[in-house]
């Protein structure tokens, strides 16, 4: 449920004390549109994060999905529990999504998530390729959706996501679809796991080590940003492969070019020169 104020993340915890203003979906056409998009990647299990009053929970179950409705506000959890009654296919979990364990089997997410913890929620779903998250249809702030889908990618963490997933700003959503309406524009963000990732999941930590360091200064020229690991001869080969000037900003590269850089490093650069694996960027 989007919030009308940016508040301290408090380690990303969604509690009644630090999220007082909640904006619930009040337009059935928006619910239908989200379900329509979710059908494109059907999975038996979907998570409704920040289920609130159940605007998505009940229609998802009626469409045949097994729904894990996650709500950390006891007031909404109690209301939702009463509304669910004997409804089949729904399990209500009263918990902080950022602290709870995720399902072990493949799952999707269809949710109107809290704006203040959007990045943390997506990070939990996509930071580690081993998480069996497969697809998402999410209400997020329009500005966040634009940042997650922008080209080129200048944020290492977002780049890591996009090596494994396709992120798309499906459409903007008017604040009028919520009650009360938020003060910011909203959007539907869709997420689909790539059939063929651009970096092997087993190499993801090493890849993140590379891009976290290389993108510290997105405007830095390519030869300077990569010169710590690649020799001059290797850089000469690399710029020919990428078809870019050696002085091009490192932040101007696309996902496939980054995949080529990483593959070149693995094949030609001595392992002792490789960046340390696992550096997760919070930029």
TrEMBL record:
Gene3D superfamilies from the UniProt entry: Ribosomal RNA adenine dimethylase-like, domain 2 (1.10.8.100), Vaccinia Virus protein VP39 (3.40.50.150)
**So which domain of life are we looking at?**
Bacteria
GO MF, one example = rRNA (adenine-N6,N6-)-dimethyltransferase activity
Any one Gene Ontology cellular component term annotated for this protein: cytosol
Domain named Ribosomal RNA adenine methylase transferase N-terminal is located at 30-195
Which keywords does the record carry?
A: Methyltransferase, RNA-binding, S-adenosyl-L-methionine, Transferase
Membrane spanning stretches: none
Query: Does the keyword S-adenosyl-L-methionine feature in the UniProt annotation?
Result: yes
Record-linked Pfam families? RrnaAD
- InterPro entries reported in the protein's UniProt record: KsgA/Erm, rRNA_Ade_diMease-like_C, rRNA_Ade_Mease_Trfase_CS, rRNA_Ade_methylase_Trfase_N, SAM-dependent_MTases_sf
User: Which residues are noted in the entry as S-adenosyl-L-methionine-binding?
Assistant: 23, 25, 50, 71, 96, 112
Which family does the similarity line name? Belongs to the class I-like SAM-binding methyltransferase superfamily. rRNA adenine N(6)-methyltransferase family.
Q: What is this protein's name?
A: rRNA adenine N-6-methyltransferase
Q: Which organism is it from?
A: Paenibacillus elgii
What gene, per UniProt, encodes this protein?
erm-23S_rRNA
